[in-house]
UniProtKB/TrEMBL annotation:
Domain Calponin-homology (CH): 32-140, 199-307
Coiled coil, from the record: none
Keywords, comma-separated and alphabetical: Actin-binding, Cell adhesion, Cytoplasm, Cytoskeleton, Repeat
Higher taxonomy: Eukaryota, Metazoa, Chordata, Craniata, Vertebrata
PANTHER family xrefs: GAMMA-PARVIN, PARVIN
Protein name: Calponin-homology (CH) domain-containing protein
Keyword check for Repeat: yes
Matches recorded under InterPro entries: CH_dom, CH_dom_sf, Parvin
Compartmental location: Cytoplasm, Cytoskeleton
Native source organism of the sequence: Petromyzon marinus
Top-level taxon: Eukaryota
Example GO biological process: establishment or maintenance of cell polarity regulating cell shape
Amino acid sequence: MKDLQLDEDCDLDENETTLVIQPNAYRDEQFLQLSEVLLDWVNCTLREENVKVRSVKDDFFDGLVLQHLLEKLGRVKLAVPEIALSEEIQTHKLNLILQNLDEQLCAQDPSKVKWTVKSIHSKNTLATMHLLIRMVQHFSPKVLLPHGVSVKAYLLEKGKNTLKAEQVMEELTPNHISRDNFSDNPIDVIFRVSPEKVPQVEQMLLAFANGHLAGLHLDITDLVTQEWAPTVMLVLLLGQLSGYFVPLHSYYLSPESREQKVHNVKLALELMEDDGNPMSPVQPEEIVDVDAKAAMKILYILYNKHKAS
């Protein structure tokens, strides 16, 4: 097709087929939201390894990030170099990684495998997203994935001297909502759909937090002041909600440096996960940088769990 425009390489062998995203689908709101959730999940999972990803398309092709995820979540140790520079080493490494992941993710239903070494290494966005979605569903089922996300794609088939292309809709996440997995982060929905309600929701969450901090004679006035940024309040709030005391030596009561503040946030997020809450949808640095939206997401998770207490 002469007019076919693609943002991805499609080096196909004869009679080979592949699925590639249409360029305008990158601007789809649901696609962007799902991409953001997946990247946040990877960054939260690998925060202790100081791994930071920014692109589904560009940051997974060499196997480095997937190796870190597999070794941490799948509890396996691969005898492969962490840094693979040549294409040959990268594909060999990806082959070992995907063999392990396929066994863990899709052993009961091989039809769910929608990725290959070639598609991941060639930066096929849809293949990479299918893999990350399956990893989230398997390793972190409580993570909030948007539901009902489908994107426009091309189904390509290489003939002897031709390239056939059929326009299709590719489903990334199903329409149904699992009882254990909400479709959207409610705070994102409020900011996007009803921004006029943000102050009301913020006050509701502050009232919830302050009601539980009253016994310590503490009070949070708003979510964009320095008193919230060090997250001493958050650590204390977690203790009040779950009925435990956090040893003073494990966090900084009066953090001065950015590193100390980030340490406090990481501790708070780890305590939340240990307490059975969904994996944090925000990065520690977002709280330290007094991002009100990020703080509201954290408080909403706690509110949703403890609102009846």
